[in-house]
Amino acid sequence: MRTKWAARGSRTLLALPSERTYEGWKLYSSLEPCHMCLAAAFQARVGTASFASRNAYGGAVGKLVPSRDHVARPLRVEGPLDCAAGLLPELLLIRHFLWRSPDGDVVRFYREEQPGLVAAAEELPPPDGNGTLPGAYATAAAAVR
């Protein structure tokens, strides 16, 4: 499937063979799954979706209207982590959009709804800079305090 709309998670889940279900499987994601990824997890009948960090702009946890199938075969959702590791992916997302589209919808949303996260993300180097994972984690740890 080639589309700009499908996130990698949803494309991967939709590629699973439909002859079986995946209730014993666990989907891991750094960010809260988007609507398409969460719906694909329901459709593939994955047992658990676990994510480290909220995605206040595009996350779908608690936002999908459950169907009878969702109620009959619930998807267990775990996350976010309550530590720096649970904030870092969202900071990286914001930093990416500060670099790529500073006047776009994502940055505008975060500036209005969570300006403290934007301030922390602005401390990270741009994606084409010389940042390190330990340095980014230290920024996230400072923002958690």
Describe this protein's structure.
30% of the residues are buried. This protein starts with 7 loop residues before the first helix and ends with a helix. It is an alpha/beta fold and 145 residues long. Helix 1 (8-14) runs parallel beside helix 2 (35-44), helix 4 (84-100) packs across helix 6 (115-122) and helix 4 (84-100) packs across helix 7 (133-144). It contains seven helices and three strands; from the N terminus they run H-E-H-E-H-E-H-H-H-H. The protein is elongated, with a radius of gyration of 17 Å. The chain folds into two domains: 8-78, no CATH class; 84-144, no CATH class. Strand 1 (22-31), helix 2 (35-44) and strand 2 form a beta-alpha-beta unit. A three-stranded parallel β-sheet has the order 1-2-3.
In summary, what is this structure?
This protein has 7 helices and 3 strands. With 145 residues, it is of the alpha/beta class.
Which structural category fits the helices and strands?
alpha/beta
List segments where confidence is low: pLDDT < 50 over at least 5 consecutive residues.
none
Mean pLDDT: 89
Q: Kindly report the spatial arrangement of strands forming the biggest sheet.
A: 1-2-3
Please, how many domains? 2
| % residues in beta strands | 5-15%
